[in-house]
Each structure stands twice: as C-alpha cells, then as structure tokens.
Amino acid sequence: MPNREEIERATAPLVGKALWGCARAVNMVMFDFGERRQSVTFKGTPREVGEYALHVSCRWRIVRKDRVVVGSRDISYPAGYSDGDEIPEEFDWDRDRSRLDGLLDLFFEGDAKAYPVRSVEVGLAGGLRIVLSDDFCLELFPDNSEPCEHWRLFIPDAHQPHFVVSGASS
After folding, report:
1. C-alpha triplet 74, 76, 77: angle, nearest 5°
2. Which residue positions in the chain have pLDDT lower than 70?
3. What is the Cα–Cα distance from 161 to 119, expressed in whole angstroms?
4. Could you give the CA distance from residue 133 to residue 163 in angstroms, rounded to a whole number?
5. CA distance linking residue 155 with residue 168, whole number of Å
6. How confident is the model at residue 96, as a pLDDT?
7. Residue 75 burial (CB < 10 Å; 0-12/13-18/19+)?
8. Residue among 148, 95, 117 nearest 50 (CA)
9. Which of 119, 143, 105, 78 is nearest to 21 (CA)?
10. For a disulfide at 77, which of 21, 23, 81, 114, Cβ 3.0-4.6 Å?
11. Measured between alpha carbons, how far is residue 116 from residues 19, 26, 106, 136, 149 in Å?
12. How many Å apart are CA 7 and CA 54, to the nearest integer?
C-alpha cells in the first residue's frame, strides 16, 4: 500500500477539478473529474470520460454535513426503494437499476451538476476524503484486510501507470 505522502502526491491534481459524473461496472463505481473528453470503450463504443478517473472497489459514500446522500450499500436496494419497503425477490442489482443509480442521478442532476474539489484529505489505511463544493464530501474507506484493490486513480487513455491503493503489503 502506498504511504500517506504518496497518496497525497497522487491525489493533489484533483484539487480544483470538478467531480461531474459517476458510472458503475458491477459493484465498482467510476467517478470522473476535470475536463470532459471523448473516448471509446474497448468495444469501440463512444463515451465521455474525465481528465481523471477514480475507480472505487471499497466502501464509499457522499455526505453533506451529517447526512449520507448516497453510499455503496445503496446498490442493495431497487430504484425507488423507501425505508420499510420489501425488496422483491427477483431484484438483481447487477441487472436492475438500484437505489444507488437513482441517487447518483439526483446528485448529479442527470448530467447537469458538477462539484469542484476544494481539498483532499488522506486517512488511515488508504482512506480518502475528497472535499467538494456545496458542503459535500466523497469519502472512501477500505473495509477489509485482503490484499485486494481498494481504489485507483488514473488519466483515462493515457498510457501511464495507474495509482493503485490495495491491502497488499509493500
């Protein structure tokens, strides 16, 4: 695992860039920061990417003051779920829209809202707190001791090494 100084150095370019989008592949979320640019998927499909991409495989949440706006466990509930609703037996978050998808749509107001990064704070064990405008924070918190990947930061389409934070020993 990289040390605190290495994480601070790697995440410093996010300051001043706007968080403007999020997508997911299975249960990994992919946040986009900075200028929007055109790219293509490995299948050749056009897509828009950020200047920086943060792929998160650990627990995460977006908070505002003392309230969780959306978090990684929201994937476990169907879109439109309210407290006390019964979760349909056939619900499959990998196939169906989840509460996570709906809350992220609301947070980004479809595709209309972006949140400039004010600062980045490095926590313990690869944790990260990205302070955004409007009193929002994106928080990442690795929550297992396995040597798996927790998150990675990289420049899409650049043939440069990715900065990876995992539970692997150095």
Report:
1. 75
2. 168-170
3. 23
4. 25
5. 23
6. 86
7. middle
8. 117
9. 105
10. 81
11. 6, 27, 17, 10, 26
12. 13
What CA–CA distance (Å, rounded) separates 108 from 96? 20
Half-sphere exposure at residue 87, Cβ-oriented, CA atoms within 13 angstroms: 14
Regarding beta strands 59-64 and 67-71, do their DSSP bridges make them parallel or antiparallel, or are they unpaired? antiparallel
pLDDT at 169: 57
pLDDT at res. 6: 96
Burial of residue 76, with CB atoms counted within 10 A of its CB: 0-12 exposed, 13-18 middle, 19 or more buried? middle
Range 102-138 burial, b when 16+ CB lie within 10 A, else e: bbbeebbeeeeebbbbeebebeeebbbebbbeeebbb
Element (H, E) at 102: helix 99-107
d(CA 66, CA 31): 22
Q: What is the pTM of this model?
A: 0.92
Take residue 138 and report the two structure tokens written for it: 């994106």
User: If you count them, how many residues does the chain have?
Assistant: 170
Domain boundaries, the chain: 4-163
Helices (H) and strands (E) in the chain, counts: 2, 10
